[in-house]
Amino acid sequence: MSKLRVSVWRGAEAGEYRSYEVPRQESQTVLDVVSFIQRYLDPTLAYRFACRVGMCGSCGMSVNGVARWTCRTHVTQVIKGDALEIAPLRNLPVIKDLVADMSGFFDKWAAAKGQFRSNRSRRDDFAVVSPATAERKHADAAIECIGCGVCYSACDVVACNPEYLGPAALNRAWTLVNDVRDKANPERLRAVAGDAGCHACHTHVSCSELCPKHLAPTASIAGLKRAVSLALLKGQL
Fold first, then answer.
1. Do 103-233 and 3-100 fall under one CATH topology?
2. Pairing between strand 94-96 and 99-100?
3. In this model, does residue 217 exceed pLDDT 80?
4. How far is the C-alpha of 35 from the C-alpha of 189, rounded, in Å?
5. What is the domain partition of the chain in residue ranges?
6. For burial by CB atoms within 10 Å, which of 70, 169, 191, 216 has the most?
């Protein structure tokens, strides 16, 4: 049986790579490789996963320098020779080994006013939103984000400017800007209009290229730029 040479980040920010040999298997995913190391070679290895089928987004790691969902990434897609390098997601503090601290990532969702605020009360009937409206189509195109952090890890602007809200938070803001049931848009547009907001995006498109859900945060951020500019022209900001 052939072997994989796997270098895995161990420790926290000041850690180092440690090498392991893992048997090659048919249809083997990167998460399978990490799980084999933890179960059979080194039980002290820390990593994060849950569903194993691309639903939860918790198994994001950097594989050969590229942010990916490891449960949906087959070894054959990313192998270089017979070697793999696996590290925690970039642009996030490292708790231990392959586990990144996601708290700052979700703090930026809150800073971008990513919470839905209804314009109705519990005494009102359910809102009826036509799927044919332009707003609903814009929201539908971006709404499937599950917060895996892959786009944030891939973003060069975040790497250069840690205050930047990042593609996931801005993508979430864009879905809510287009939600006719939400009442917080003036406040939300002010939140994403600052120096760390949508206009900081350099349109590198890496977030859209690597999104495992095939969303286009770059397009969402462009929509926010237009919405912020229009609000400024109308004197609303």
1. no
2. antiparallel
3. yes
4. 43
5. 3-100, 103-233
6. 169
For 219, the token pair is 């397009």
Taking 3-state DSSP, the helix, strand and coil percentages for the chain, each rounded to the nearest 5, stand at 35, 15, 45
Which CATH code of 3.10.20.30, 3.40.50.300, 3.30.565.10, 3.30.70.260 fits the domain covering 3-100? 3.10.20.30
Classified as helix, coil or strand, 180 is: coil
What is the Cα–Cα distance from 90 to 96, expressed in whole angstroms? 13
| 123-156 pLDDT per residue, tens | 888 888 888 999 899 999 999 999 999 999 999 9
Query: Which CA distances in Å does 219 have to 69, 98, 128, 139, 207?
Result: 22, 30, 26, 12, 10
| Cα dihedral 108, 110, 115, 121 in deg (nearest 10) | -170
**Looking at the whole model, is its pTM more than 0.85?**
yes
pLDDT tens track for 164-182: 999 999 999 999 999 989 8
Topology given in CATH for the domain delimited by 103-233:
Fumarate Reductase Iron-sulfur Protein; Chain B, domain 2 (1.10.1060)
